[in-house]
C-alpha cells in the first residue's frame, strides 16, 4: 500500500464534500439531533444513515450479533466490504450506503468502476481493494484535520483509549441492513422498504444506544439524503434555498480550515508582538511580561476560590 489513512471527523460538511470529490452528485449529509423518525423523514429522500459510536477495544467477533441476524448470503447481492485498515471506517461506511444505492444515486464514473471491479470479490478482498484505492484514500485524507503534533497513521489503540467506529444502515432489497466492516457479514434487521426506513431504523439505533451506560453520550448520527437544495428549488422555497446555500458556504470555509494547522502562524504572530514590545523601549517589554504574569496569577487565584475573572 502506498500510504496510510488518517482520521476524519463525523461532520456533515466533511462527508458531503468528500463524496462530491469522489464524483457523487445531488447527495448530502445532515446531522440528526434526535432519534425521532419524524426528524429523519423531514430530511426528504433518505438513502441511509451513518452512526458513530465508541467501540469497545476488547470486543471480538461472535457467531451471533447482539441485535438482528447475520445474512451471509446478502454479501453476494449487495456491496459489503470487510474493514482491513485502521481509520478508514468513516469513508467505508458512507460507501456502504452509496454503493448500494447505485441507480437511485448518481455515484459517478470512478466509484461505479470501483464497484464493478471489487464487487466480484469476497468481502475481505473488497476491503483490501478499497484500502488500496489511491483515489479514495487521497480524497479521504484531504479531509483529515491537520495536526503538526500527532501522526494518526502511526497510532495504535490500547484498551485505555477511546476508539470510535462508523457503521452504516440502509434499506437494500426491502430489508434493513447494518453494514459494519468489522463484522463477518451484513446484519439483517428484518423487512424494510425505502419508505419504511425512518420508522424501522430508529428503534434499532435506540436498542444499540441502550446497551451503553446512561452516562455515555458520545454518539453521532448523520443522514445520507438527497441534496436539500433540489427540494427547495422544486417547491420554490427561496428562504430554504438561501439557508442551504449559506450552509454550503460555511462547510467550505470549515473544510478549508481543517486542511491547515496554524502553529506557524501563531508563532510568527507572537514573535511580531514581542518584537513590537522590544522596539518600544523604555521597559515596555518587561512591563508587558509582568502584567501578563500578574493577570495569570489573578485568574489562578479566582479559579481556586471558585470565582470568575
TrEMBL record:
Pfam families membership: Peptidase_C12, UCH_C
Q: Which residues carry the site feature described as Transition state stabilizer?
A: 83
Name the InterPro entries for this protein. Answer: Papain-like_cys_pep_sf (IPR038765), Peptidase_C12_UCH (IPR001578), Peptidase_C12_UCH_sf (IPR036959), Ubiquitinyl_hydrolase_UCH37 (IPR017390), UCH_C (IPR041507)
Reactions catalysed according to its record: Thiol-dependent hydrolysis of ester, thioester, amide, peptide and isopeptide bonds formed by the C-terminal Gly of ubiquitin (a 76-residue protein attached to proteins as an intracellular targeting signal)
As recorded in UniProt, its EC number(s) are 3.4.19.12
Where do the segments described as Disordered lie? 289-309
**Name of this chain's protein:** Ubiquitin carboxyl-terminal hydrolase
